[in-house]
Amino acid sequence: MDLTSLGWNGDFENNFESYKNSGLIPARVALEQKERYVLFSEFGELAAQISGRMRHVAVSRADFPAVGDWVAADVRIKEKTATIHAILTRRSSFSRTAVLGGAKTDEQVMAANIDTVFLVAGLDSDFNIRRIERYLSIIWNSGASPVVILNKADLCEDVEVRLEQVGNSAMGIPIHAVSALDKTGLDSIRDHLKNGKTAVFLGSSGVGKSTIINGLFGDDRLKTGAVREYDGKGRHTTT
Q1: C-alpha 80: how far from its chain's center?
Q2: Which of 16, 53, 117, 200 is most buried by a 10 A CB count?
Q3: Where are the alpha helices (DSSP H) in 178-219?
Q4: For the chain, how far is it from start to end, CA to CA, in angstroms?
Q5: What CA–CA distance (Å, rounded) separates 11 from 223?
Q6: Residue 178: which of 208, 198, 200, 204 has the closest Cα?
Q7: pLDDT per residue over 103-162, tens digit each?
Q8: Which CATH class is domain 115-217?
Q9: CB contact at 8 A, 46 and 65
Q10: What are the residue ranges spanned by the domains of the chain?
Q11: What is the CATH code of the structural domain delimited by 4-93+105-109?
Q12: DSSP class of residue 140?
């Protein structure tokens, strides 16, 4: 795999310098499930776990690798497995507070090193400007750059009014009205997708995130869920 196309750059290269003489390689976390990881690396996909020392010195869940992290790992090429020894400094991160019991909480990083966040909202009965503002606050705090996508333009009779309304709350942020159903406006989203940059889609269930992604790729890569007609809500299907 070409690491540059995965987001590897000079900043990460400099951060990795101290690990070069330890026989470790850089890799990016593509999947995390119950402390089992899939890494993308120059040797392809690797099944990985964290080292015992890394687990021992971890103070919180935020010290564990998350999807999008660049890590330093030793690799067993024939077995296609690896051990993660360190996380390179994160450029951005999405985290949530997990309740451990009583008043005790812990920070858990959900995704790291994201360049662009596409915030998707529906131009239907579920449209909520306050929710959009809350999501924008999360994105700004993460260190990533937001792009607002107002989907289901085909169901809205006052698209320009909604664009102005969102624009007042998202000054200077790109805003695009699209219809994922008939693929109208998707080219404006493609303009924000750059080689070597990482983007995520954020939004409530039923807003059309999976449908938009499928439209961008031109095939059904992600499952899409049915949406109730009376309130426009659906089930989360995006991974």
Answers
A1: 25
A2: 117
A3: 186-190, 209-217
A4: 22
A5: 35
A6: 208
A7: 667 788 999 999 999 999 999 988 999 999 999 999 999 999 999 999 999 999 999 999
A8: alpha beta
A9: no
A10: 4-93+105-109, 115-217
A11: 2.40.50.140
A12: H
